[in-house]
Design a protein that fits this description.
359 residues; alpha/beta; 7-stranded parallel β-sheet; 34% helix; globular
Length: 359
């Protein structure tokens, strides 16, 4: 153990999944306070990792900047390892990075996706939430981050430990299934900040979900299938689903991943996980969604649908693909996340060695 005290902070579920595989190695070597936002407590509980709830220290979310500063000082934090969460609903993560910058406390943030680069900016366009060092998935993400900060030394390609684990643990399904389960993975509207699911927003006489249901009728009549809809944790449940679409009631995402065969979404990390787990995936990158996908995922790991009228044909082909154990070409993404655990640990230790608190 060193005399340094590391704060590990986790906010969103996606970031928590990235951090969790490397937590034990960090805790074993350093004095660590693991602080977890309510959004990601379930991830730490599932992995049986000890943590302190954010609510133990703060009465409101987000806490004020003064409260965060007092917390950092009182707990004698020397370095921070954290998620970099969206600023749309909760600024706790953003304020933490900003206050650490003010106190000259080094921060190592992780970028767990290929989109959402607006998270580094405050409401007047100042880049207030960019950590001292960022670990990112691959060269594509690194290039985008360097465009923002123009400081290549601060952006390190380390992969994605959770995605690597998903691929390593995938279990191909060879048996013929009586029923194919199709899961629609929702995403909330963060552009207009309504947080209504983008598939449930009004689109002509109905919504995209209505159109998905209509297109599904092109699936071969010999195929038994069921369509379910998985609400996003941040989504406002304001609308009823079309009659033949069920709400996904699996207790965890891992259960949903295991029980379903075909996944339909836009560009969420859950869709990436499903592809790496060996599932058949369809991305609805429709003109209606162009405003949400500012940066798409740079790998061809699923079927892309750019016109809703083509979805029925692709669903028909994809259901046949499941029955024939068809698999996507994942090699480039698998190469990108290979060795992630070691790369994250090594880069973190280099960060601790190179960055010292200067106040």
């Amino acid at each position: 153990m060193t005399d340094k005290k590391i704060l590990v902070y986790s906010q969103d579920v996606g970031g928590a999944k990235y951090i969790v595989p490397v937590i034990n190695a960090i805790v074993a070597k350093y004095q660590v306070l693991v602080l977890v936002h309510p959004l990601s407590e379930c991830i730490f509980e599932k992995e049986n990792i000890s943590f302190c709830p954010l609510t133990n220290y703060f009465d409101s979310s987000p806490p004020s900047k003064n409260e965060i500063e007092s917390f950092i000082v009182q707990n004698r934090i020397s370095h921070v390892f954290c998620t970099i969460s969206s600023t749309y609903q909760d600024l706790t993560n953003a304020y933490l990075v900003e206050i650490c910058g003010k106190l000259k406390i080094p921060t190592y943030g992780i970028m767990d996706h290929w989109k959402g680069y607006d998270r580094f900016f405050d409401n007047v366009g100042v880049m207030a939430y960019f950590p001292d060092q960022i670990g990112c998935i691959d060269s594509f993400c690194r290039e985008e981050l360097i465009k923002l900060r123009k400081d290549p030394a601060r952006v390190i390609v380390v992969g994605h430990p959770h995605l690597e684990r998903i691929f390593m643990e995938k279990k191909p399904n060879f048996q013929n299934k009586v029923m194919l389960n199709i899961l629609i993975i929702s995403q909330p509207d963060t552009r207009e900040k309504s947080f209504i699911g983008i598939f449930l927003k009004k689109n002509g006489p109905g919504n995209i979900l209505d159109k998905i249901l209509e297109q599904s009728k092109q699936i071969d009549s010999s195929v038994n299938y069921r369509i379910s809809y998985r609400f996003h944790p941040k989504e406002k449940r304001l609308m009823q689903l079309p009659g033949d679409i069920c709400v996904d009631n699996t207790e965890t995402w891992e259960d949903a991943l295991s029980e379903n065969d075909i996944f339909v979404g836009l560009d969420s990390m859950l869709l990436v996980e499903a592809a790496l787990a060996g599932k058949r995936c369809i991305s609805l990158f429709l003109p209606e969604f162009s405003e949400y996908g500012n940066k798409t995922i740079p790998y061809r790991i699923w079927e892309n649908v750019e016109d809703i009228k083509n979805l029925g044909m692709i669903l028909r082909r994809t259901t046949q693909g499941v029955e024939n154990n068809y698999s996507c070409n994942l090699s480039d993404l698998v190469d990108a996340v290979k060795g992630s655990y070691e790369r994250v640990i090594n880069s973190f230790e280099t960060f601790i060695h190179n960055y010292q608190q200067t106040n």
